[in-house]
Amino acid sequence: MPNTWQAAGRTGAGAKVAILDFGFQGYQSLLGSDLPASVITRSFRADGDVTGGGEVHGTACSEIVHDVAPNAQLYLVNFDTDVEYAQAVDYLISQHVDIVSHSISWFNCDLGDGTGSIDQRVNEAAAAGILWFSAAGNQAQSHYKALYAPCPFYDSDTGLTDWYQMFEPAIGIRNRVTVMAGDTLVVWMRWPQYPFTAPYFAWHDFDLYLLDSATPSNNVVAWSTGIQPYNDTNPGYEALVYTAPVNGTYSIVINDYSSHYSQATPLELFTTTNHPMQYQTAAASLTCPADNANAIAVGATQVSNDSLEWFSSQGPTTDGRAKPDVVAPDRVTTASYGATGFAGTSAAAPHAAGEAALWRGADVSKTMSALGGYIKSSALDLGTAGFDYLYGAGRIALPNPATAVCPVNHFEMSAIPATVSAGTSVPVTITAKDASDAVVTGFNNWVPLTMTTGTVDPWKTGSFASGVWNGTITLTQVALSQHLVASIGAFAITSNAFTVQAGALDHLDVTPITGYANLRRGGQLSLTVQGDDAWHNPIGELTYSWVATGGTLSDATGSTTTYTAGLTPGPGFYARVSSGGISADFLIGINASSGDYDGDGRSETAFVYDYGSGTTRVWTLDYEPTDPNYNNGKPTMSWFSGNGQFDTSRAKID
Question: Which residues contact 308 (CB under 8 A, 6 or more apart)?
Fold first, then answer.
């Protein structure tokens, strides 16, 4: 169906799609062929490496989006940590992207209910109008879940009695997994903690171990024994990593280090995709954030025959919600992975995102949340009739493009005044029209707003009512020959040219032209003042009035003046400049330096005025008893005094 849409001229033009991944190695060599000629890249890694140290996964995902929606604007954004992930999502929100494709599985970040910190970022994106596609995960055979009840179990292989039964009645304490030499096995474990209320205690502290299963040693080769805080209501997590030195079958075992809860509790294990466990639970094997209510979780079907991939994670969520939402093809050819094909839900998610971009570019009448609903409702039902926990609503499928295209042909916008003051509200009317210039009354979406330079508040119109939006905007950056642009998908309208001038005077900024100055008595400092509006736009042609104490001003009316330090400190050291009822006070602090400045053979205290200082520090100078000529005076005392305070009895002033 994407080919049908492309043949009809529906290519995703106007849609912004972000691929949020670990790395984009080799993307530059694919520009203009397997990727668009131009993409927007941004790395939030500490080292700024958009390739992620040579990771091609994100590049392959980007190729799939481009194959499906060749004219969509792609954002290639990578990260390495959860903090950087949050920063990346904030960036995508600021860029007003339409769609995010996220083919990363997070483990031990929630309890499968979509409520963790990683999920929260998806919620924030959805609140900003972004449609989020997440790979459902590849853990259908790499997940196990059961109720754990404290019950000592004797293991005949090891003779241990301090391990506990977990993996089905009468089976034993082990869940075996085969690992090849050089492979890295990761095992994650999670469980809920419950409110600490009578009659139950709510604390579990499970530990996770990996045994090498070599008879008869059964050596522990890896473990995770983190301390779970007592009376903690947060989920419990453990995880271990082990690189196998030889081929072998290893055993995952669990130790109940300390449990104070009389009822069984659900405990889950996940392993890396290529290491299926002996005992498996395909149900509820979704990874985070595919379990989030605001993410469209995408499972994988083989492109050749629509059969479900054996590894594709299944629903429901642990809190009982229906997942996955849809499935999409994998095992497609990419330049990054070659002709062997790109398998996994990582390939399915960008395929679904690409089809959403086609629809976004063609049908601007729908909000992104509404478009998510249409994506699911138009899916081709597979498996059991109706929704199921394997295929979700079915394989993603676009309707006939002729019936899915919004009738909007263009927008009309009311005129903007030729001159606009920063900060004032400007009324605007935008109308959606069809090809015959009739109002498209069914258009009830919102439309993004931009300006040639600067920002528009708000950045989007709000929902149209029967094809028309009446509202106000505020512009805050001074600029000449500006245009307001309203655009969505492939449709845009540009306003007449207008000028934004500075708003009302809000504050005065005073700075020393010569920088930080050390002034002795009689020294001079050149100062300048600039009147600004509330958005720091400069306001010209203002009249200024200067006042100073502790010195004199050569000009008390212009925007620039010369300050001359007084011969005595006076009652205080400050200056004030005023204009239009707005004033700015700034302090001139004092330091002291020593020297025989007047040639009388005595060391004087010379005052230094430091612009912007909040306090006055003074050193008093004295002579040494061995120097009757007073020529080698040295500082012997110092003190601080407040603004406008100076004790002349403690220093020589002449």
Answer: 299, 300, 301, 327, 382, 383, 390, 391
